[in-house]
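In keeping with the milestone schedule agreed at the kick-off meeting, the structural modelling team has produced records for the first pair of proteins. Each record is given below as a sequence line and a structure-token line. The laboratory manager (R.T.) confirmed that both were archived under the project's standard naming scheme.
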Amino acid sequence: MIDNLKCMMHKNYRFFNLIIAFLSVTIVASAQTSFKTKFSKSNIYVGIEVGSKGVKMSVVEISKSPQTTGNFNILKDSTYNTDFISFTQTSFDNTLNSLTSFYNLANTDYKVPAKRIFTVISSGVKMQAEKDGKQEWIANLISSFQTNIKDPGRKVEVVDVLQEARLSHLGIVPNARRYNTFIIDIGSGNAKGGYFPHGNTTEFKLFQVNFGTRSTFQAAEKNLTDDPSLANYKRQLNRVLEGVENGEIIYAVNVSGAYALSDNIVCSGGIAWSVATLIYPELVNNSVVPVTYEEVEKFANTLYTNFKAVTPDELLKRITDPSLDKETIFKEMKRVHGVFDQKQLMAGTGLLLKIMRQFKSVYETKQFFMVKTGQVGWISAYVDEVVE
């Protein structure tokens, strides 16, 4: 596997390094009230996002170099899993408390001024609320949050799927590959992405599927009835994925016209991070990992037939290079398993495969890349567009 990886990485050397240089991501240790910055001239910004699964906070150092999108350095990345889209009083209270706690932590403990703290509600939450007729839950969350922090004018933007997908592209994909790269961000409640078809960053062609890792898992779980076995879950998951593929994915890719114009397929989101981490744990320090369709397909099969093989203990046994930090690798793999269980990994990877399959052809090979740090990409692009 390592030999194959080296061959693939050599083939994609220029693009791979462009992305790595673009992201410039370094996770650094920090004291509670200060951070070790990387750039000579920079500001620290905080992005707090209410997503389908929970509330995420990213503390990011962004270079002051004018319009240099992507010059950012992750200082801290935290998540509270609150399941807001279940729309229960408990999930509401947990989400509100997490949102408030993150804001106070950033503003009071980390000393980040309010004008550099951005709070948003993700498109996945917006779509699920519209689907369930629960829009008032979002409005109540925003007003309650404003009350908690004693700032009635505090802006909490509810982003739509087009805006979120466009920002993800701007924040993740390097300028050198801006116009031949298709991005796919698989979240908890939806998958969105797209590309810029006309050589400018104002016209964005949207790709959108109303299923994400969690919603795919929930759809399969709902059909289990009186047979909770893994075999039955696999059957129900296959039915859900087949319906999503035939009902949404094929149409979404075809109508986007992306196949002919996109040489590189960049995948982000929690499931992309998980797949990259568990297929290539030895690349723990790489923010971007190239993969093939066949590797992801094999991984998906292993999740069902031999889940033990992708557990941290088993994967660590194959790490023989003494120069690698086994403790860091083990912790990152444990983090994946702490976020997703077997069924959720099966759902997310299955959805990822269905989308990747639309770009796989015997006549033309697309390059697939898993981006582990896509959750903070939007902040960099957002800052570039809203801060003077």
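The second protein of the pair:
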Amino acid sequence: MNIWGISDLHLSFARPDRRERYAARWRDHASKVEQNWSDLVQPDDLVLLPGDLSMARNHRDLQVDLEWLDRLPGVKVLSRGNHDRWWNDLDSIRRLLRRSQLAVDRSALTTQGVVVCGSTGRASPRNEPQPEEAEAAARELESFDQALEEAARLRGGERKPLYVLCHFPPFDAYARPAPWVERFERAGVTACLYGHIHIEGQWPLAVQGTVRGVRYFCVAADAIGFRPLRVGSRRDNVT
């Protein structure tokens, strides 16, 4: 069983949004994702999607995007991104999801033999954070604490692989870690998947690879060529 990651699909089937106005690579991007996904992912695989699934503004417009995602192979775990305006409370979201779809938000779950948890994260301030930014970061730290505590309960005494979904990059452009990175290390996280980055010049600066025991992957769809990226398997870190 392989584990894949891809974020920032920015689906908009109900109200078409011409994303190629941002960059030519986005032309027909959903078709590219669908073809690549179908070629790579097997029905029993796990696909992690850390945010910005859909540009829908309400649950009605979201339906066609969820139906498209459901037709693709694999079990999918979603978390919230900054453009997921349709995402309200987790219980409501879970009632909308199709059989192949799961969701985390300040929470954790077990599926396919691994534990997945997540929260949105926050963009790192460019300058000294203002009081409201510091308060928002404190709330986000609390969200990750809640998610990781639930993940620890689900892991029990076992060392099941633990994947964290975090939409915003957990390191800034100078490789300085967000406050929750230390929590990832302490919790023994296997890997953290993030997205949000769509400027080509920023992709080489994104922190990836193993940092103090945690593997980091940028899985923004355009950054990985609109192809799900293999990030592990159920055997990772199992003892």
